[in-house]
Structure formats: structure tokens, C-alpha cells
Design goal:
Elements (H helix, E strand, L loop, with lengths): L21 E6 L2 E6 L13 E3 L1 H4 L6 E10 L2 E8 L8 E6 L3 H17 L7 E5 L2 E5 L4 E2 H4 L5 H20 L2 E2 L8 E3 L5 E3 L6 E2 L33 H17 L20 H10 L11 H8 L5 H7 L1
Helix pairs in contact: 4-5, 4-7, 5-7, 6-7
């Protein structure tokens, strides 16, 4: 089976990219989603994306599939309408793959979203063994939205994302997989974090989190944004991931290996203090990293951007 290009097939709970309207029908035991207009990349008009029975069997009958929002090896996210009225006209429905590890991760994500109750990330409305129904967030991933947006807007979105991460930490959780695909940028300039399948519970007395491992004890994370080592996650790993994205914007590339920020020249507009904080946040030794993700952002964001960020907040 051939899937469409990565321009609109991306993983993440609630990943909501603006795509052409599609028409859904059930034919021969499969969902065929046919674009009503040509995509800029991927399928052409008249082509069909065929989804296996494993998805259609677990999509509750009360939901009408409007659009495929994204997907990957671990599952697919759809834009759906609740035919019974329910909580809203449009919702995001995440369907996971049938293997036990993926179902465990989805169940865990549902528990995290239930505990958060909409404090940050999408609000969860329904949880089943292989599906979650949650808020539809009409935004683009930070990785896509920052293209051509300029440094100010890219940093503004990261500041909003950091505010959500701080709320998550205050609520007793560590996200565990912060990366460009798991930050959604909204039209109003704000940003939301998504995909809580790797989130861990933080102990009040140890600033640590309950280990939640899958795939023979390995965490589901993205290597470029995950700090070494990964035996036990805590909130300073989220700080590291945020520092990687800040480094990408300010320097123009990802850090190249452990301690790379120490040898990269300080970019123009970043204070010596801010650069020192960023270098600490990128340390392979988590004891050297700051605990507070907002303290990192405030220190690193160039002073010339302060007014713009205050207006965007």
C-alpha cells in the first residue's frame, strides 16, 4: 500500500493540518477517502487513500469521518463529526494500531488527558481500547508553520508552548516527547502541545516520573530532541527538548552531539546570560539543566523580541 507524502501524513494526537475537504464512503470493507481537489503534494485529484478494516472496525458508528489529519506506524488521526450532536461539530479521533504496545501507549495517553482535564493539550471526551476522541485543534505543526514565518513568530510559538509545558509540569507530569510535530501553532499566534503517549507522572518528593516503557523497555521518543541517557525521564528532559528547538531557531541548526552548544558561537541578539542558560539546558548531564522551562525561555529569547512576545502572549 502506498501512503501520501509526508506533507500531510504526520503522527500526533490532534494533529490538525489544513487539508482539502474530502468525501468518505465505505466500499468493500475499506474506507476510501477521495480528495475533492488536487493536493499540492502527494495524491492527485481522483486518487484514493485506502484504510484497512482495522480502523473502520474501531471507529464508533456515531462519528462520521470528514478527513484524515495524519498518521504513522502507531496510528491515524481523523477529523470527525459527532452525528448525535455531542460536544461539538468537529472532533479529533485517534485510532491506534492493533499491537499490544501501541494500545498500552494509547490507554496511557487517555489516562494522562483525563487527569489533565483540558488544562493543557486537547480535552478528552471518550476513551476506548483502540481510540480516543478529543478536541480538534485547527493548527499546523511548529515544524511546518515556522517555515517562512521568521524568527520572531517561531520563538513566539515556542514561548506559548513552553507555557503549556509549565502547566503540565505544575500538574505533576512530564511530557517526554517534545518536538516540532507535537506543538501545534494556531491562527491567533498561540500554540498547544499534543501527543501525551510518552508522558510520565512526576513524584512530588523527587522531581521524577513513573517509568512507562514500551518496545522492550525503550521509550517512544525522537532521538534528535531526546537527551541522553533515557533510563528515567523527568521534567529536565522536557527542558532539554525545548532547548534543542530554541537552538534550532537561534543558530539555524540542531545541536550536533553532546555539548555542541558549548562550541557554537553565540548568535547575534542573544545575551551572554541567555546563551549560558541554553548551554546548560543542552547538557547531557541532567543535573546541570534548569528545572523551569519558562526560566529557560525568558533567559534565551533575545531582548529585542520581548515587546513582540508580550503582545503575542
Amino acid at each position: 500500500m502506498t501512503w501520501p507524502s509526508s506533507s500531510f501524513c504526520r503522527r500526533g494526537a490532534g494533529l490538525c493540518l489544513p487539508l482539502p475537504q474530502v468525501v468518505c464512503r465505505q466500499a468493500g470493507g475499506y474506507w476510501r477517502i477521495t480528495p475533492s481537489a488536487p493536493f499540492s503534494r502527494g495524491l492527485t485529484s481522483g486518487s484514493s487513500v485506502v484504510f484497512p478494516n482495522s480502523d473502520t472496525a474501531v471507529i464508533p458508528s456515531r462519528y462520521t469521518v470528514l478527513q484524515r489529519l495524519g498518521g504513522g506506524a502507531q496510528g491515524t488521526v481523523y477529523l470527525v463529526r459527532d452525528t448525535r450532536g455531542g460536544v461539538g461539530n468537529r472532533l479529533a479521533l485517534k485510532v491506534c494500531a492493533a499491537d499490544p504496545d501501541t494500545q498500552d501507549a494509547l490507554r496511557h495517553e487517555g489516562q494522562v488527558l483525563t487527569a489533565l482535564g483540558g488544562l493543557c493539550g486537547p480535552r478528552l471526551y471518550e476513551s476506548r481500547p483502540r481510540s480516543l476522541v478529543m478536541d480538534y485543534i485547527p493548527g499546523q505543526s511548529w515544524g511546518m508553520a515556522r517555515t517562512g514565518a521568521g524568527r520572531k513568530r517561531a520563538l513566539g510559538w515556542l514561548r506559548h508552548a513552553a507555557q503549556e509545558v509549565a502547566l503540565l509540569h505544575d500538574a505533576g507530569w512530564c511530557h517526554g516527547d517534545l518536538k516540532p510535530d507535537n506543538i501545534l501553532c494556531l491562527p491567533d499566534g498561540s500554540a498547544r502541545i499534543i501527543d501525551f503517549g510518552a508522558a510520565r507522572r512526576r513524584f512530588d518528593d523527587a522531581q521524577a516520573t513513573e517509568p512507562f516503557c514500551v518496545n522492550d523497555g525503550q521509550y517512544w521518543t525522537t532521538p534528535a530532541y531526546a537527551p541522553p541517557p533515557r533510563e528515567r525521564a523527568d521534567i529536565r528532559d522536557d527542558v532539554y527538548s525545548m532547548a534543542v528547538m530554541l537552538h534550532d531557531v537561534l543558530v539555524g541548526k540542531l545541536p550536533e552531539g553532546s555539548g555542541a552548544a558549548c562550541i557554537t558561537p553565540r548568535p547575534a541578539g542573544v545575551s551572554a546570560t541567555g546563551w549560558t542558560v541554553l548551554r546548560r539546558a543542552l547538557s547531557p548531564d541532567r543535573t546541570q539543566r534548569p528545572w523551569d522551562v519558562m526560566a529557560l525561555v525568558r533567559a534565551v529569547i533575545p531582548s529585542g523580541f520581548t515587546f513582540w512576545l508580550r503582545r503575542a502572549a
